[in-house]
Batch of 4 targets.
Target 1
Amino acid sequence: MICRSVSLRLSVGAPFVAALLAAAPPAVTSDEFVKTIRPVLAQNCGTCHSPANPKNRINFLKAATARDIEADRGLWRDVATQLRNRTMPPVDSKLTEDERLNVSNWIDNRLRQTACSAGDFAGAVALRRLNRREYRNTIRDLFGIDFNVSEIFPTDGTGGAGFDTNGETLYVPPLLTERYLEAAQQILDRAIITPDLVRTFPAKPLTDGQEFSVMQSIYVDTDYDVRVSVSSTEGLGKLMLQVDDATGVPLSAQQGRGGRGGGGGGRGGGQPIYTVRIRLARGLRKVAVVAEGGPAAITSLAIQQKASAPAPEKMAQHYRLLGAEPGSDILRPRKAAEQVLRTFLHRAYRRPVETADITPFLTMYDRAAERGDPYEERMKLALKAVLVSPDFLFKMERRSEKPGIYPIGQFELANRLSYFLWSTMPDEELTTLAAQGRLQDAKVLSGQVDRMLDDPKSRTFTSTFIGQWLGTQDLGGRAAPMITELQAFYTPPVAADLRAEPILLFERILGENRSLLELLDADYTFMTDRLVKFYQLEDQFKDFHSDTPKLVQWPDNKRAGVVTSGAVMALTSHYRQTSPVLRGAWILDTILGTPVPPPPPNVPPLEPVTCKDNCVETAKTAVGMRNKILAHRVSPTCTACHNLMDPMGFALEHFDWTGRWRDKEFDGSAIDATGSLPSGEKFDGASELVKVLMEKKDDFARQVTSKVLGYALGRSLQDGDSCTIQHLADTLQKDNYRGRTLIREIVLSTPFRNSQGGKVTITTAAPPPPKLQKPMVVK
Amino acid sequence: MSAKRISRRTILRGTGAALALPWLEQMSSAAPASAAGQLTSPPLRSVFMYMPNGVVPELWTPAGDGESYEITPHLKPLESIRGDFMLLENLWNAKTVGRNGHWPKVPAWLSGGYVERTSGDDLDAGGTSVDQLMAQKIGDGTALPSFELGLEATRSGIDTAGGGFARMYGSFISWRDPHTPVTKEIVPQLAFDRLFRSNKAPVISGLNPDDPRVLNSLQRDETSVLDLVREQAKALRNQGSSGDRVRLDEYFESVRSVETRLQASLKPQKRWINQGKLPIERPGPGIPNTRPEHMKLMMDILVLALWSDTTRVATMMTADAQTNEDFSFIPGVRGGMHSISHHAEEAARKKQYEMCVTWHVEQVAYFLKRLKSLDEGGSTLLDNSMVMFGCGIKCGNLHLEHDLPIALAGGGKGTLKPGRRLRFPKETPLCNLYLSMLQRMGIEETSFGDSTGTLPNLG
């Protein structure tokens, strides 16, 4: 629920808000701390957190000067976060919204400016399992099989910087373990061809009601023909087949073998044969024949798998993995198995393996060998265990308990790099470089980053990163769902094209090493026939024909960059109504990385809905809507944040709730797309807003840096990372914001190439509130 | 042998012809000889059914104070079975009060705990959820200790505008411990197969489970595989840092729980066996095109799970928090439910919201009526169940936290007296209901969450 109010004029909190939004971060002076910041905190928090209070364990007020903050960075990071998240102070405090915003921003800025005072920081990446995408890609590279795990595995959680690479939210519930077993079986059944089962058992004649049974391992879920030969049909009643004692099915005389005579037994060249085709599931099965209504002179029972003819590429896959044709005689099978496992484990574990790594899987081989399984099935069992083992499922890294920063191993670095840019296991070149011990070399690493970004496999990074960062991956699903009233122009393929626009933009920036600022102001996009229709640009694109996205210039300056993209405009709207508040909040949070606090609890909704009938009076006209929003500026609770959010949203009012351009309001009146920020910038419409955003490129650079870093590291960013982020952002600025510079510098950064031992103080973006805190009750 | 009647147990075990799903279809309608170890009376089941985005308060809660009441518009779909449920009023979750309108109110719904605000590095539901506590205490009596169903994939991202909560919180009402959500199944076919996978016992008919042929059979391979990887995890754990240990422990526990389940299925369990057939077929792959179809399949599978005594504890999320799925399939409704729920007291909008909520009650009614239609030897499946349903906020528009919309259906195996409306003192902990349910499930707890006692007068 978004329900806040807005002011277009400067109001009470103007000076600090102006400072906040100035292009350069404000110079945070320690003087200000003594004069302004600390007094506010002392007044609002001092009752419980006074340094004089012996029960107070959260002693941030002991800082007398700004310099003292650095000694307790983690604690102060908490203070800012608690203020921003409204977890503190309790609701009955007198802290104003202006003060809340002012103080938390001051602390953030101060911490940022002094980020590197704490020394180097690498942090420790939590142990991460492969997420769904990584699992699928890794299986593809291991076996050459595209196995769609999203149909089997539950959706991964996201967290930290907001990505599904975040180890802290990649849980391993029992449900997933079940699915790992099942997926492994299905994958191996596709990768390895088990020779068709054909087996004949000699049998003895049965008296009426007697049964003859055999135990047989069934390897493949499919149809089987069961054939029973009888020496004579004399007195024969019915022959029934039972599997695992379940209900019997009758066998019938085989067609085309004579078949005259009442008893029905086939006569022909040989003995009469009775047969039935049944479907059998994998497992040891008891297969029994029962004579009913008379004796049966059976002589043999045969089980024959329905013949299969594997496709040539399947045969090739099999050969690549096992180094032998299906069913071929292998001279020393156990030796061969060991060799296959050695090669496979090296790849599946993504590191060199030792004999001790192989032995456990050979015991699986032995288990299957002892019961007489064919070679292929023995290998399946051993490999199944590999695919469920922690070394395969997790990105293992050796740890040091010794305090301090240390470089991670060569293969570990190859893994981090490969899963960062490709979402899959390292390829041969990376593995070779790791084996040669050359990956920690900065030149080699830079070269690899370029090579990997040039490879089409890097598309998985661009699309995942953009989709999850901007939230556009949900378009057409959770956000802006397909609804019937829009089907004339908004269909699943259109949604796909809309999702693709920002991804292709990012891809181009990385591909051609262009400026990341183009994410904000690109005057081009990637058009399809469908998008021409969606954007209603038929006149401007008369000669354009393309089913696939094609690079084009926007014909005018109505749109630029991702902020104005159809996808973003749609996902920041309500049903049938644009939301200046949501749009402004989205820009502050997603693009600038300066989120505003959530609304205080239980604020009544501000934005009435747009509709033709039964509307509250003010909502019937666009002017009424805007005035209603503006009217709330009298409330001091709301102005502090809404002064920031809403003007930006107003500038985007030319985009309707589906993301299309509109010249007029829903009631026919003219669009008012003017807005001005507390810091003084005035703008009319999207293109002028984009110019203002371009002035805030430092905020943007820091934001995009933290996002890519968070995605790459797969952990929540911590206070110690601020130094890295600032350093990366500075480097980025010096190199004209070139996309590849960012990726390369992240790969070369301390936290990416190192790990940290000993106790790493973890201060996250959202610390738990202190234990003493009682739930806040609004009466 | 030839004339032998097939008991349901035999069929469930004898899965040689397993692909001819469902096995239940094959079952003889004739009564089997009573299997050894079978329960002589039906067990008590607990189901928790979550509805999203609150209700219209005045359309849920009847006017006045009395035990009898006039059916309200939201409850209309339940009118024909009004004798089978009771309205429980004035319950709340104190620890969610004054916080974000949705995210913390989902994990807390069944845990009663204080849900930590986090972007995901350390989720904390404030406690183990009541269903999972039940599963941990009595779940070893069934093939599945508990069964978690839903309709929506886990939400992603951080709701910065909503105060920095990981949206994942909105997708889980079941928590194995305060830090570990239990993933729910949303694909009908997978949920259906899960019931039977747990029944795919490695028992080979006619053979003793300890027979070497059984121990060495294909059916036992997975146990060996799990055994092996569990040992590997143990070894790795001793090398890792403390951060790694947490995750490896989770993996270890996860493997162990699947292993235990496989082991348990080796031994005949004392279970309740219902006679007859339940005509529920194995669903096709994937997620059905429409929400009503999807919902019906999941409800049917849940009925099957309870009827076949595959589990006695289940949760069902008819939608996730803040669901913004398109509800236009309801005639007269346009758009996503969450945006509709913030109707700002605008009449046309509020009407649509009302329809969305009532549609959810209709789904619950469908489920309850199915339970009621199934005989368990003199009593119905509904008689032998406790089905709690409702939401963690009273009003979707304002996120009100008092007097949550909560109802309890079923006879609780004779321990409940449904058909009434019970008004407790204002701000009675919802956890008091959970404590009452725990004790009825035979779990000797003296408190749960922030409970102050049991709910009086339920029976």
Target 2
Amino acid sequence: MAAKSKRHSHSPFTMISSFFFPRGGDSHLCFLALFSILSLLLHHLTVSASAAAGNPSQPHFEGFDAEEDDDEQLSFANDLPLRSSPPPITLTSPSDPTESHHGPPETNADVDSVPDSEDSSSPASDVKKPSSSFEFWDEDEFEGFPVHVPASEDAESESSGTPAGSDPKVETEPESRPEDSVVPPRTIKSFTVEIVCGSFLIVFIINYFTGKKENENIALAWVMKFASKDSIFDRNFSLLGVGETDDSPLLLKEGQNMFKFYASGRRFCQGMLATLELKSRHDLISRLYNMVVPCKDEMTFEVYMNDDGMDQVVFAVARKKLAKSMHKEERDLQRFASLVAPPTGRKWLAEELAVVSESKEVAGDLITEIALEKVFGDKTFEKFGKNFISLHFSDQHLGSHKKMLVFKFALPDAKNMADMSRLVALIPYYIDLIGRYKLSSHARSKTEAARLKVAQEMYKELQNARQEALQKKKADQRKKLEEAEAKLSAEALRKKEAKERARQMKKAMPKMKMSKAH
Amino acid sequence: MSSNSHQANDPRLPSAQRPYKAPAVSPQDLPVDYSGFIAVIFGVFGAMFRYKLCSWLAIIFSAQALANMRNFENDFKQISMAMMFGIMGLVTNYLGVGQRVVDVVILTCIWVCGGYVLKLKSGQAEL
């Protein structure tokens, strides 16, 4: 029953929350978090309200300063509205009278013995003991402490500024502070934040338009060079651009720094998607960031090969460092390929490049004389290879399309687009090369075995995952059922119970009759 | 033979061409909009504790988020929220009047955006 009542007390809360918010597994938690934020804000509000109300009545409160009961409240109210009002000594000095209860009150004003029992902040007040001011002290209440108590009261009146006016300096202080906050000195310095932020915003907006234009110019320069009439892509693909018709725009703009170019209609492949990922020139903050961490304009070509247009090939070329990281990160390379050492007695890639491939045979066949001569050879790579980042051919790519050739190049300036024309020429060359390429039977059996093994592993993993998912689903369902039950109010439960009882009664009744009839 | 050589010269194959179709991207795969997130945080802080620097930063970061926006419908809601917080913080700071009114507005805003976050979360959970 206790659990039931607990549920009942819980239900209005959930009802409210579900009224405002959609139901969700962790909505309670979120509601709690939200509630805590709200309470924080409310607290803030009340504090500011009390600050507003507290200011005028400040002297009034201070009249009661000496009263012990108000000590804590007062110091609380004192601290909040006036941040720079009397230093927190008030917290320690009002406690002196209370401490005097605990410590043995020396009637003979034994100055030396008291500091020993108190903390280090109090000696200052203790020294002033002899100067006594009895005006606001109820003598009847503290008959036994003639010297000690007034002394501490005195210290307190000094620090918090009682209306006694014993210290004119303290009187003026609370008045001068509000003036400061209302009329701050209006110098240029006080507007630093506004000036800096405002000018940054203006520069940001100007940079947005100029940077946008810059990026567009680079993308257009690329298109003019490689996708206009009688250019390399026009000669290789029958459809250029993202639209259906011939006069549709060639480039698709995604965001301010991402452009896409699509081409299709070529043998061996279904299509090619080129993605120009330029620097965020339109964004001043990333521009500043890029000054510290430089990056390049990059371009990625993804060639979607026909299913029958590519044999089992896993092959990648990149600079040594990148090749190693690709070998670790890309799953197909990690599973099927390994770093291939340069063979002896043969022309090979430039020294800075490394090959990751499934077998030596594939690497040897794909690094042809022509490719070496055009780009990858020692001499030519120095000249034309500076924009080369990586190429990665695989029939085991993750994602929707498995057989894919991926080329990554850096983009040169808008003026020097011709620098990468040799690299771009690699694309149709490799499409044809891969499209015609057939593995030898020996290599083929090897690759097939490797793929079978991986497929089996994948299948196992998949089955495990499926089982886990099934179990999770079951647990979720159970949880949901329990939750639904918990959501039912006690009344509904009672109704249900009553119904159940009635049904049981009904069940029992005919039996009785039966027995009676017999 | 002639046709074969012609094909060798011209790799184009109009019969195989396929129009471009944009890959479907699920909302989870989208890159996280850090600047929008930072803007919201600064905006809330600026409005709650009346730090004008926070409000200014919120406006700057929401401008950045606006500049980097990819999908108008998806992103604009969050960015507009951040901007609202930033502007509200500045209004409270510089006009300084009707602070209680503004407090109430902030309360409702937090309430609303809390609901919005919950909606997002529950939506993700259901997905």
Target 3
Amino acid sequence: MLEQLLKEERVILDLKSKDKESVLEELLEPLNLPEERKKLVLEALKKRESIGSTGIGKGIAIPHTRSVVLDDVYLVVGRSKEGVDFQALDGKPVHLFFLLCAPPQDPGTRYLITLGMIANIARKIIKSDEYMKIQDKREFIDYLLRMEKEE
Amino acid sequence: MDPILEILIALGDIDAMIRDAESPEYKELGLTEDEDPIEKLKKLREECASKLPPNILKRYEKLKKKYGRGIAPVVGGICTNCFIHLPTSLVTRPDKNKKLETCPNCGIYVYWTK
């Protein structure tokens, strides 16, 4: 399932944004949504963040939302070398983002299952800083898939 | 876009977030530090719902009671609530989302994704 969602064009290895709102916007860019829909998804993401940051700590955030304006489940992975102030739970800058968004209803509840997979990967990759060193998008995807399978 | 449609979309998104937040699968993930995110979401919902004309809100709530949601995207000409292919006359119209519309089959408010 994760393999189907992880696409090279939805991996950003060098995020430019420095703050919460602009990084969410930058992470939405690869979806190529029309401006009107992009704005509505951004609003939904901000609403979700307003009830508690999805910056789970140790440099990782999993911003996620459902939105009526989406027609599929989308995953975008972004890495920031300098880190972003995302009001994470531990107060530290976030270096790795997994943005997941989906329509309100999705067959097979891919959204919640994928959220679980990402949370699981996140717990594994915080053990080293390997994810900060990878220079190639394909390698980055392979690394994440390897981490998913690792016990 | 129709301004009422925009509020209905926001309301639909919040309702979907509440549904997730209430599900055991989501709670298990522990993605929020807050002890009661549902209360915060319900407050957001109230604020959003208060911007709607009473008749629209009443209809939305009625639909939500019946189908679990009050608004659904139309994808590829198909209403994702009742899975009926909408008439070509509607699908090909250039002013989609410019006015508030409902599915002619199930009556749910619709948002055209394309």
Target 4
Amino acid sequence: MSTVKQDTRHRDILGTSALRPDGVAKVTGAFSFSSDMWAENMLWGATLRSPHPYARIISIDTTAALLISGVSAVITAQDVPGKATYGLISADQPVFASDFVRYMGEPIAAVAADHPETCRRALAAIIVNYEVLTPVVDPELAMLATTEQIHPDGNLIRHQHILHGEAHITSDITVEGNYTIGMQDQAFLGLEAAMAFPDSGGNGVELHIATQWLHEDRGQIAACLNLPEDSVRVVLGGVGGAFGAREDISLQVHCCLLALRTGRPIKMQYSREESFFGHVHRHPAKIWMKHHATKEGKIVKVESRMVFDGGAYTSTSPAVLINGITHTQGPYQCDNAVVDGYAVRTNNPPCGAMRGFGVVQACFAHESQMDKLAHACGLSPVEVRLINAMHTGDKLITGQVMESVAPVERCIRETDLIPLPAPLALDANVLEFPGGSGRTADRHNIVRGIGWGVSMKNLMYSEGFDDYATARCTLSNGIASLKFATSEVGQGFVTLAPQIARSVLGVDDVVLETSDTQIGSAGSTSASRQTWMSGGAVDGACRLVRERLFEHVGRLHNIDPIRLMIEHTDVIDTIGTFRISVTQATQGITLSETFEHHHRKTEDLDENGQGNCHVAFAFVAHRAVVDVDIELGLVKVVQVATAQDVGRVLNPLSALGQLEGGIAQGLGLAVMEEIILDNGRVKNPSFTDYLLPTALDAPHVVAIMIEEPEPQAPLGAKGIGEPPCISVTPAIVAAIRAATGKALSRVPVRPQDICL
Amino acid sequence: MNNSIGNEMYTLHINGQDRPVKDAWVGESLLYVLRERLELPGAKGACEQGECGSCTVIMDGDAVCSCLVMAATAVGADIVTVEGLIENDPSMAVTAQTITSQITDVQQAFIEEGGVQCGFCTPGLIVAVHHLLEKNPEPTELQVKESISGNICRCTGYGRIFAAVEAVVQVRKASR
Amino acid sequence: MTVAVPLSLAEAFDELSRTPDARLIQGGTDLMVEINFNHVKPANVIALRRIKELRTWHVNSNNTITIGSGVPYQEMETGQLKELLPALAEAARTVGSPQIRAAGTLGGNLGTCSPAGDGLPVLFALDAIVHLQSLESSRDLSIHDFMLGVKRNARTANEIITGVTVPVLDGWQGYAKVGVRNAMVISVASACLAVDKKSNSVRIALGAVGPTIIRCRDAESWLVQQFDLSIATSIDPAIALEFGRRVALESKPIDDHRSTADYRRHAVGVLAKRLITRAYPS
């Protein structure tokens, strides 16, 4: 028998900084990432990739590779038993290229061998004859009908027009600009890795994989393998970060094919270099934007033309594009809009999901515009944003009414109240200067600047997509176990889910079952959606179990279940003295319920871009303080102040981690992170040349979380993952502009953009 | 693991034990040998060129990137991996009563201060921080930043990692 | 592929005569990257890290310092080496990360001979002598004769770089490196400046702006005509500016994915101006 617990001890319920249940395993190195898997009798798999951005494949000869001792299999397109292509929105990407290669790094063949080095030798022995073609790399040219169409589906992936209000209206002041956003990489640290186990008999496969969406993977894999979905079991391997890069298929199909071919477990893992070719990136974009405003600074109309370079295959380009153009207005009121967006196929690397998903690009443009507008009207960056700040009930340029809580003004005002950092000390250490340990600057070379960025971000999937989430809760002997297919990629859903169960059920011990495809879909860990969607599913399942518990207790003790409630860890009678611990009440019984959480329905956009296409929105303001060495063009971000609309804080420590981490990624895009292309070729596929912020680049972050619970959200909490990385980029660039007086219309800002 | 390309035999000294390595290809890095041959997957690989620090181990008293150590040349070196920190941590005596399981004060602080998200960079950072605090028990904020500037974290933005190091420094200071 | 781990130079030469094609590996921070990236598959490797003679340094009676090719960078960042060779200490501190500085060596920088090698501009500014030894003989080469081009040097296959000798100068010296983040960054452009009051001379060497490290002889000789380096305490800003301009003219940078030729040329001019101003504060 358990004793009744007093509430003197800390309980990790919602609202507390509960610690990660996987923390001990992660700090000791015992946590099993997908790259840590090992199996008896396993083989290594590896992929042969195209060295050319665009070429016709004349022949592929695998004979020599197969003769190498230790090589068990070499497979190409002709070994794919099912569908030859895959893709998230449009299945236009070949499992293996067979006629054309359309981007540098496109897979052509895969090998299985007894050692990674044997694999490398086998790959080197495969002879591919190419007819090298001139790549189409400029999206502006690629979208023209007169340009060579590099794919049977054509080069224009999607065009969408938005017309809202009066097309020809203008006003006292117009400001316009052309903006360029470079190609950013998600650069998760845990490289793509998987292990596939073939079923005996070869009629099925079990894949352990670091992914964002188990069920979507399963569907695409099964189609390519020509197996029924239930013959493909996908199990979540430990995920070392994702940020959008694990939404698309990378090595999943290749790994399963090799396992089925050899009848042995196959381990595949990409190197960093291969990873740059193995997943999609953030779309580079070119954006023209023009604002019409009154002389008081009130926006009357926004016009924009956005071109997103989708690279060789579709991935999520159509959805990224729609996110970009429907966020043209930013978090500001705007009654009139004319926008055209184009997602275009080129022979550049495929682009798709990355944290911020199209809104990052739009936000850099609209926030740069807001500063221009402020300047034209003689307003401060804060004033112009407050004048235009959106509120709940405002109509968006899609015609959709903003139904979400929209504390835009409050985000700006609270950020503005955060104290500015102290001036750079006269005796400051050189490591604090722009240029850091390179000792390039002296104190007097450094100029400080302050800049602002504010953003709006949609939550969940859009345009009619029902990205529901499923969870099962089982309660027995005082222990709750939760089952869901939600991908834990580092964000902390494994911390949150038990918090929900503890809050709803009054238990302390919560067990998380394996995340796999043995339950319904959870949707993707993306679009800032899992706290809302999978959180809603866990909450729903736990509430159903609680009803069953009350029925059970009521029956046993002859109390109307409606009178029962959970207090701390007990079931109590709200109008009597009856009290029983949940542990005691569930001795010897098992209560189990499954719940699917669906968000409200959304609609497609019509030909004028009108429609209720998004579910909900979150807002955030960023103020950046930078020190710039103007003469050398080097930047140090000193402080980022932020107030974010989070709805409700469910775990303060996790939430802060999301805010700080997102800010570092936005900083990366602002001043250092870019995949450099030369005629379709990636020039910097390594961490020597693709630079990520280090500990000495991280700014001091001062964060405020604005809690105005969102009525639509199951837990009152909005998703918080994406907003932190969106408006911090324009805020940093604005701060550099303030320090230097340079126009800076491109990110990342390069030293030569500042000083030459 | 048998394979067709390697037949090197050597012995490494890891976490206080002699660990024989058989049938190895000599081009293998220490990282590969630890992970794939010696069942010590704590060190992680994320760049293969010493630019991320995920594979940090202690070798003869220095924190080094195990991806850049040719394993066969590490014969005779004293190697400590994240799996071996407990045995090698002098602070364990001080903090043994405060920890909930067999983890070091640095590891505990990383959990409590939110320094762990996806956790892929974590083992390398844990090793680097242990090494730092051994050499410099009361580092300044800048010294902390410089000493972990070779350990890339993509999730946290470093804020909670700095907090974790600071927490350890304060606790160790108070208990001295 | 075989690997040998000799414990002495004598053993190393034995190995080298047995496998004359062997690649020498010191800290591993260059060669292992090449192997990991599948760029090279050396048939034989000789690891020098356990040769104690290479891991020592000493001050010579003629006011020079000899540093073994196996001394890791972290040892140059502090202590007596930092006191006597401050530019080398500053350069060492910019090499990669602390983990890389624990492994990387001047021997490795010299063996690889990348124009972006952080230690090399210091050796060029100090007119270092490179010590090469083979089984039969040993020779000393000026650094200027040693580095021949991008990743090319004058070492012959039977030689081991045992160390370098550099003078302890009387005068300010410093190093600066431009990279696009605040730590652990490969050089976009770098410069080392060293004043020698005794000979009333200044030396400036540039990294990552040409196929080899570039000594700016014209700018150096122009500067010594402007003022007496041995007695001056400050510099006319106009002279510093002109010095920078002249240094930039002597650079031979290219466009690549790390930066542009124009920026690199500009940057080394700024670095030269700032370094000489640090030596002689205006």
